[in-house]
Design brief:
Elements (H helix, E strand, L loop, with lengths): L2 H10 L15 H5 L10 E8 L5 E7 L6 H7 L5 E3 L2 H8 L23
């Protein structure tokens, strides 16, 4: 979905939102330089895959927390995990690195990617 389709979807489902546009960010240090309206709600969105490129996951964690893919792997009985490639991100969610968002799941037409 493009931006206007996503906003239409949110409106049709009665989902309230605020729009805050900014450049792509690749880490929390870059995020801290942006004056966001709700810094207490900062989050990291990570797109990861298993070592066989069979299963993909979109993980969202609080911005001040560190992600532990090994712990996620063990707690969720997955194969070993690593970050998905920019090509996988584009193909699966229609997104570019630095702009990963849970709204990208709207592009997962087969509903294959769990959100955690």
């Amino acid at each position: 979905m493009n931006k206007s389709e996503t906003l239409y979807y949110l409106d049709q489902h009665g989902i309230k939102y605020e729009i805050m546009e900014h450049q792509a960010v690749y880490n929390m240090a870059e995020m801290e330089k942006i004056a966001l309206p709700h810094p207490e709600a900062d989050a990291k969105n990570l797109f990861v895959r298993d070592d066989k490129k069979r299963d993909y996951y979109l993980l969202t964690i609080k911005g001040d927390k560190r992600v532990n893919l090994q712990q996620f792997h063990e707690e969720n009985d997955t194969r070993r995990l690593s970050f998905a490639s920019p090509q996988d991100l584009k193909e699966k969610l229609g997104l570019k690195p630095g702009s990963v968002t849970p709204l990208g799941l709207l592009n997962d037409s087969h509903h294959e990617i769990p959100f955690t």
